[in-house]
Specification:
Blueprint: H1 2-27, H2 36-40, H3 45-52, E1 69-70, E2 72-77, E3 83-88, E4 91-96, E5 99-105, H4 110-118, E6 120-125, H5 131-139, H6 147-151, E7 155-157, E8 164-166, E9 171-182, E10 187-198, H7 211-214, E11 217-220, E12 223-226, H8 257-264, H9 278-289, E13 300-305, H10 308-317, E14 329-336, H11 337-340, H12 348-366, E15 370-371, E16 374-375, H13 380-390, E17 396-405
Antiparallel strand pairs: 1-11, 2-3, 2-6, 4-5, 5-10, 6-9, 7-8, 9-10, 11-12, 13-14, 14-17, 15-17, 16-17
Helix pairs in contact: 9-12, 10-13
Length: 425
């Protein structure tokens, strides 16, 4: 009888412990059961979890969690003078004067011996479109294959050091070995930068590299990523430091740059006086003309307005375009009835120009500009105002006026996600 009671007590205790464990497990921020609405959201699951419990840290042990890491290719000659290359991620600038780069390699790599012997190496920076070469070079050893021959890449003898660089890579850095340190699993080579070469196509004024054009690869967690888009800032950003507690907004982050732009787009009605360049406007127009169009008629015409007098006139006479007094420019999207031809009565030109407008709004968001759709068509009084202000010919119908400028930050995106607007069949 005593034994039976003891077993019952043990069983009850076990059930109680199991219940506690299950309850604790369900409360952990790294476990969550996704609903259909969750899985259809563009926000990553990990981001949603982190947003639920800010700053809750979990020890993950000793890992190379310094993100991001560069993905570069190291060029070197072997004893026979054969060029070789290897992919490396343990790379970084380690000194300013003299400018020096540190590269760490395992002794088992072919390049380890090459650099030790030749006392020179090159750092070759690829663009994201060269990912296949970076992966190939990282997978095979120079002991077994001639990587330049197999990839079709071109080895060029360094101009200043005894090491080859890769002709096709947009940036190459020639380094002279000054010292090395055996750290354990890797030997760290310190190379003084002797010369940097860059493709003219990726250079801006004063020979500065345009990171967007370079689009370098980065490495993290065994995977490769593109660098990502520019984060627009202005001189007033330091004024936002107010001493208040910081709360991360993981719920506002999305799985890729395209989704980020889509969800961050907002109607901007408050602009700074910072000028907008012609190149920026052309970027928006190229995006607009990339929109889909019925039968490829492309029934659009774009008027770019930068004259202050016209902007102010439109601001005064269009009821919902008062922000034009602040905007530095405006794009007027017009439907061309001659291009629409026999489809104009079907209204396809409205759909096509609307698609172009949305592309312009998204492009503005992506490069740090602000924009807002202000309607002209189908209101007769508004279209007459725009036609008169711009002197439009009879074949053009203005669909809208889009004010363009740098946002002050007052306008924010709206969360328009409503599951009740979806019917699943």
């Amino acid at each position: 009888m005593q034994k039976s009671k003891f077993l019952n007590i043990v069983l009850a205790a076990a059930v109680l412990v199991l219940a506690i464990l299950l309850a604790t497990k369900s409360d952990r921020p790294d476990k969550l059961t996704a609903t259909p609405a969750d899985t259809s959201s563009n926000v990553s699951l990990a981001a949603s979890l982190a947003a639920a419990v800010p700053f809750m840290k979990k020890s993950i042990g000793v890992k190379a969690a310094l993100y991001p890491q560069p993905a570069v290719v190291i060029g070197s000659y072997d004893k026979a003078g054969k060029p070789n290359m290897m992919t490396a991620a343990w790379v970084g600038i380690c000194n300013s004067n003299p400018l020096s780069i540190a590269v760490s390699m395992r002794p088992a790599t072919y390049s380890h011996g090459n650099v030790t012997e030749a006392k020179s190496f090159t750092v070759n920076i690829p663009s994201a479109e060269m990912i296949k070469y970076v992966r190939y070079v990282g997978r095979f050893s120079g002991k077994d294959v001639d990587k330049f021959k197999e990839t079709g890449l071109t080895a060029v003898k360094g101009e200043f050091v005894n090491a080859p660089y890769v002709k096709e890579f947009p940036i190459v850095i020639e380094c002279e070995l000054t010292e090395f340190h055996d750290l354990g699993s890797h030997r760290q080579f310190i190379g003084k930068v002797i010369d940097v070469k860059a493709d003219e196509a990726i250079l801006k004024e004063e020979d500065r590299v345009d990171i967007n054009l370079l689009n370098p690869l980065i490495y993290a967690g065994g995977n490769y990523y593109e660098t990502g888009r520019l984060i627009p800032t202005n001189g007033d950003i330091l004024d936002e430091i107010d001493g208040k507690p910081f709360t991360p907004s993981y719920d506002q982050r999305h799985e890729n740059e395209t989704l980020e732009v889509i969800h961050n787009r907002k109607s901007v009605r408050h602009f700074t006086d910072q000028p907008v360049s012609k190149a920026q406007i052309e970027t928006l127009l190229r995006a607009g003309m990339a929109a889909p169009t019925a039968v490829n008629r492309q029934p659009w015409m774009f008027y770019v307005v930068t004259q202050r007098e016209i902007l102010d006139t439109l601001s005064q006479q269009l009821p919902y375009a008062k922000m034009l007094t602040q905007a530095q420019a405006a794009i007027v999207v017009c439907g061309d009835m001659q291009k629409a031809g026999n489809l104009q009565d079907k209204g396809y030109w409205v759909q096509d120009c609307a698609a172009a407008t949305q592309n312009i709004l998204l492009a503005a968001e992506s490069i740090g500009l602000g924009a807002v759709w202000t309607a002209s068509y189908p209101y007769d009084d508004r279209t007459k105002v725009v036609i008169k202000a711009l002197g439009l010919p009879e074949n053009l119908v203005p669909l809208n006026v889009i004010p363009i400028g740098y946002p002050t930050g007052e306008d924010v995106p709206k969360n328009k996600w409503k599951p009740e607007n979806i019917i699943w069949k």
